Amino acid sequence: MKRNIALIPAAGTGERFGAGKPKQYVEIHGKTVLQHTLDIFAAHPQISLTAVVLAADDSVFAPEAAAFQTAAETVLLRCGGASRAETVRNGVNALLGLGLAAPGDNILVHDAARCCLPEAALSRLIDQAGSHPDGGILAVPVADTLKSGGSDGRIETTVPRSGLWQAQTPQLFSAALLQRALAAADLGAITDEASAVERLGIRPLLVPGDSRNLKLTLPQDEYIVRLLLAQK
Ligand code: CTP
Ligand code: MG
């Protein structure tokens, strides 16, 4: 039986957010951002295991925290890399190498900083892409008008937005496919797992995401994330 395993890259430093510590450790409503994210997966009945990939030198994460202990099906991997893609590659290799994942299991890669993922969106991804050999990602159709800008700060042209989607996470692929895609990819050039898979000539599914599934990136994102987490 194919299992669904969440892989949470949490080895970033949060430069743009600028909290003086990695943004996954910022506390909102009494819990860290990372803990909010872990709780989403721990509560989902179709997720068998959650693996968190930390930076090797991470000294902030406290495995003795009460909330972490309650998430029984969680493993910590201290093998984060210099880029998000490297962190994910190391995490997938560790899961397979340690026998925690089988090649046919689904891996759902999800940003630690995307702590407001609605349960329904996660269910939708598993239902629509979980049995598909090419996998799939959550994404939302682009809503705003898109402009291509010149180096002089002026509009070059308006880019038709029809058919354009904004990629979110989770991104779901079989462990074997994800490992193969990341081993083949120039990791400096990829910003999500799907783009590594696309380079193999495979076209993953676009599964409707949710605009509330935003990533804590800039300081001004915290206000909305606070409101969204208060709704839960
Ligand atoms: N990430 C990671 N390993 C890295 C870089 C990023 O695991 N070497 C993770 C982050 O912890 C985050 C996710 O990838 O959960 C999305 O990346 P991003 O939003 O860019 O986070 P940071 O890289 O931490 O932020 P910044 O780019 O502003 O420094
Ligand atoms: Mg980054």
From TrEMBL:
The record marks 161, 215 as: Positions MEP for the nucleophilic attack. It catalyses: 2-C-methyl-D-erythritol 4-phosphate + CTP + H(+) = 4-CDP-2-C-methyl-D-erythritol + diphosphate. Pathway: Isoprenoid biosynthesis; isopentenyl diphosphate biosynthesis via DXP pathway; isopentenyl diphosphate from 1-deoxy-D-xylulose 5-phosphate: step 2/6. Keywords: Isoprene biosynthesis, Nucleotidyltransferase, Transferase. It holds the Pfam family IspD. The record marks 16, 23 as: Transition state stabilizer. GO terms for molecular function: 2-C-methyl-D-erythritol 4-phosphate cytidylyltransferase activity. Its EC number is 2.7.7.60. One of its GO terms (biological process) is isopentenyl diphosphate biosynthetic process, methylerythritol 4-phosphate pathway. The keyword Transferase applies. It is an enzyme of class 2 (transferase). Belongs to the IspD/TarI cytidylyltransferase family. IspD subfamily. Catalyzes the formation of 4-diphosphocytidyl-2-C-methyl-D-erythritol from CTP and 2-C-methyl-D-erythritol 4-phosphate (MEP). This is 2-C-methyl-D-erythritol 4-phosphate cytidylyltransferase. It comes from Neisseria musculi. The gene is ispD.
